Amino acid sequence: MSGAMQDFATHPTNWLVILPVVLALLGGAVLLMLREAREAQFWLALGIVAVIFVSDIALALRVSETGPVAMTMGRWLPPFGISFVADLTSAVFALAAAGVTLLLLVYLRMDMPDRARRDGVYPLILLLLAGVSGSFLTGDLFNLYVWFEVMLISSFGLMVLGGRNIQLDGTVKYGFLNFLATTFFLAALGLLYGTLGTLNMADIVGRAGLANPAVMTSIAALLLLAFGMKAAAFPVNAWLPASYHAPPAAISALLAGLLTKVGVYALLRALVMLLPASREVLEPVLVLVAIGTLILGPLGAIAETNLRRALGFLVIGGIGATIAGAALGNATGLAGSVTYVLHAMLTISGLYLVAGLLEAISGETDTRRMGGVYAAASLPSLLFFVLMLAVAGVPPFLGFWPKLLLVQGGIEGWGFGRDGWALTLWLAVLANALLTLIAVSRLWAHIFWRPGHEGAATEAPNPDLKPLSPQVRWLGLGSAGVLTLVVLLLGLWPEPLLGFGKDAAAGLLRPANYIVATGLEGAAP
Amino acid sequence: MDHVIAALSGVFLAAAIYLLLSRALIRMLLGLVLLGNAVNLLILVAGRLGRIVPPIALDGANAPSAGAANPLPQALILTAIVIGFAMFAFLLVLAYRTYQSLEADDTDRMRVAEPRGGPKPPMSY
After folding, report:
1. Does B72 lie at the interface with A, CB-CB under 8 angstroms?
2. Where are the domains of chain B?
3. Among A431, A429, A423, A424, residue whose Cα is nearest residue A404
4. How far apart are the C-alpha atoms of B47 and B57, rounded to whole Å?
5. What does pTM read for this prediction?
6. What is the pLDDT of residues A136-195, one digit of tens each?
7. Where in or outside the cell (chain A) (predicted)?
8. What CATH number was assigned to the domain covering residues B2-53+67-109?
């Protein structure tokens, strides 16, 4: 047993793995103490998130050069001590999360009610970022549960901040169902621990193959339910359109951009990397879930008249695409899945930010009464145009590349194994792209092209539209513009994105380096 | 002993699901609490019960003596209880505040975010 204790100090550069989480947690605590100094709070929050962003960049660079980096807490060696492990997937996701949060902080300054600032919006955002980064970077399943809860309770706070009736209503549904999902996750953890005697991810990879496959598949199914609920996959998606349009636009952007993606990340990590044999057994379920989510999302968006509710359905459609990659299970499909998560983090947050601007211009949340924005405000229209084509997957915009990989993965699955599931998924991804294009072009026609309200029989400009104030223009358009620019550039120059997808998928499918980095070479199969 | 606790966990789970299917917020909340306890018992059983030697390493030893109880499930449960309690407290306050503001504790009557009989899809341009 003495071998289980670590008698050397962790190499200082490996501290980089927990730096984003530690900084966010400490920052949240400090900001809580500074709640009276509201101006200082903003600048401090901005500074801390900027430092987190920089350390995430350093981590991603290091991981892309040397492979996964790990660090274990305390003196207990893995699998006893709690490990933090960054492989390419987690490092890049954490980087994207920090980047989006940084821009959202700027955007949030544009129209923040003083009341929200008093009630601690900045500490909550930092704690949310801590939860999200922790979920991405942890190498221990129970620790993942804890970060889920950190993320959950801060998102409750953010969603209800302001306390309007619609927010209370949305938070009740969001809160109950998400808490239920994490409880299912906890139950799966208990069963997993009872079966394998370990919760360290690298250790689970080695042991899962030796355990009773029926038990492992039941656990995997429970994990699929829990993470599917968090990710808002069909048929457990009803909470998302009920709640994400309730808080202010910047907060919805933060939640829609990051939280569901953490669910998808956990799903990929658990089913693809930890329990690959069970994923194969569950493949028909995954396929049906993916197809349902892929088709239901854009159909909901087409039927919806509330702008941000329509965007919520587009979030769901994207989740379907990521699950399609997990259902395909080949390297190309998984690369599509991983790149789609990255694309959705950036594009969906951007869409919500622009939706906030559109609501500020028109004073409405209903697309039937928003008409004529194109004539009144050309810059937000331009941003929306780029983002809507990106989300629909029109080349050369960002969303095209993940969908191309998914389609390619479907063809490969069909070509190599005559796998009928792969063919159905291939069709569903194409149908999703078409339906999403219909949904967003309807939004475009209703909000931008139509001169006035629905049914207004006049060509005169909509008199209810008012120009953005200078502050809103600089902060709101600036942050949404930077995000759109990133989406545009990544779409036009997709080489890094595709390379990341290929390497990340390989890392998930063959986690040997991950296990070595954690320090469990001997336990590998 | 394991079987008894496992069965108890199952009873808790059944009661929790029954309560969660209710439309009243308070019942759903109690259902969540019961569910949390069912899962805690599940973790406890998963760590195997029945050993009575406390898991304490003696002076000079690196490991507890043979036959010691498994301390890890207890650590997991403790964490889960603390988190579950925080969530319960938040949701309780949220439910009360919602009851005050919306005058409803019945989820069927809480339709602010998703109004009943909402508008039809936009039919025309």
Report:
1. yes
2. 2-53+67-109
3. A429
4. 19
5. 0.93
6. 999 999 999 999 999 999 999 999 888 888 889 999 999 999 999 999 999 999 999 989
7. Cell membrane; Membrane
8. 1.10.287
